Amino acid sequence: MDTVSTPRTAPSSPFFAPSTPNVTVTEQTPGGTKRKIKKQKPEVAEHKTGLFGCSANLVNAIVGSGIVGIPYAIKQSGFLAGVLLVLICAVLTDKSLRLLVATAKHVCCPSYETSAEAAYGPVGFRFVALNMLILSYGAMLSYLMIVKDSFSSLFGVDPDNKPMRRAILLLVSLTVMLPLASKRDMADLAFTSRLSVLIDTFLVFLVAHEAPVALSFESIGGWEGLLHRTVHFDTIFVGLGVLSFAFVCQHSAFIIAGSMEKPTNDRWAIVTRNAVSMSCTLALICGVSGYLGFLENTSGNVLGNLDDGNWKSAAARTMLGITMLFVYPVESFVARHVCVVLFFAGRRAHEGDDSTILNRRDRRVGLTTVLYTLAVIPAAAFDDLGPVLAITGAVGGSCLSYIGPGLIYLGIHGERFLELVDQSWFGTLTRTRQVGDKTAKRPMGDPATATAGERIPLVNPLFHKQPTLNVPSKDEAAVDATTETGLDPFHVAAMKWLLWFTLGMPIWCFLAKAGKKGLEKYDREMAMKSPHPIRIGDVKRTRSADVERQQDQKMTIDSSNAAFMIAPGEQLVRHNSFTSHFGGGGREATATAISGGGGGLPPPLRNNPSDGNNTPKILSINEMLGKELVQKRKLEQVKVALAALENDQQAAPAGWSDFLIAILYILFGLLALVAGVLSLVQQQ
Hints:
The chain is built from 27 helices and 6 strands.
């Protein structure tokens, strides 16, 4: 018998328990006296923001402090190569943001880590959660160190006066950063994010204005000299290691997407397109002007190339420090979200419903303060943590921005990938390896080892009967045996095996099989949970492809008091969201059931619960009309709810091009990881 598995054990403290805060109210008794009682405080709905505010939050998460390092990355890559890498990373970021959210909606997952869990189980959940924590904590630490340097320089503090620099850091961070990070919802940061984007724009144009582009351009001989600097093959990996993480924001994507009003896929595409375009424009202006202005003298922080005695240089450093005040809360939200999903108990905590869990002020302020303390202590104690921050950014950024989206898509659509492989030129290799598996003995009706024709429908295993096995006829068996045991000529088979391993097909097939198995287990677990909407928005189709092919099975489900017959073609809906409760091919049957058979009056007889011998009682005309009116209103509510849902963008079967994009994401992520480590080693 299948049971719902819990990926982690939460501490037993009431602080982490799934409770609702209590409030003391005063009530007056019938006798005229007053008494104080405790009642559960109602939950406050999560605050939402529009497209503009959501785009500003995403731009704020993307730009961060990395924009001042773009000129250095172009210097290491070469002018033309650097510009192309900026554009490529921007396109990959926009695509991955939309791919992640669409894939999560396809399987009704509300967060990044639960999407990985749907495909790869607790291992995928912890892999994503820990990388989110690593990346967000490293960003928090770096922002605090920039604040210390920027405001110390603004107030004229000597670099050797460490006590005063630490005091300024504590004063500024406790006054501005910690209160903003203690907000409950991401939508509450929309105003400060707009202000941060405006300051970033002024900063970029100030750098472009102060960079001596004309003088440097003339010194290298104009365009002819610039053409000799198009690609630097000896240091291009250093530039790639910096530029590949210039647009990292996937770890905050679901938190930002869930804070948007009407979080549909189309509206999310508008947000990602606007935010990535804005970030790419700022990066190109800062990178090109900074590199052309200082050429081979460009430092890792382009503000270091500006004249120290110029007031504009001081203004640029101040603006950078101010933007860090507004970027830090975004990363703190991500780190706090990871703490919620890892340490708090309950389904809502596991699925990342932060606004519900953090509705209690003690939890929200306590977690935020602990995370702030863990970040501000090393930021105040050390002046340079460059290598540590670089390695955390390289590992966390590559895993979350490129490797993670590709792995999740390949795992969620794993069965479709295996089907395409079986139908492709490599089909004879895969079918030959499966001959022994089909003839092996296995438990009857075991879902872990059953073939496609024997797979058990998605229902509660407590009530299902063993399905009838689809036994092939003699002719079909003969055709299958001929197909599966057919051998290619030696040279063809050798070429197939060579390409099979060269293209890494064993790895991709292994990941697809793991994802297929994990998704089947996830579907069974979700079928036993109550429906509820998800933060990022529901879609009409929430079934995975492997479950849809099991829906044309006829099966009788017996329980202690009832038996239900599922006719061929009728869908079994996975009850893990509001969408799947009313969605799928069974929506018409659901609406018909609610409407009492699609029109007509309800049955006129009912049992009288007050009568001990269950004597039938005839309903009055008013009761019949009232019941009919209630049923019609319920049907109208269902129709309105269904009309508000959007279509699933991944409802159609995936093709080779889709899987090729996913695999390229994984490969680019591995390349970016290696490039980041190599750039760190070369800088040392």
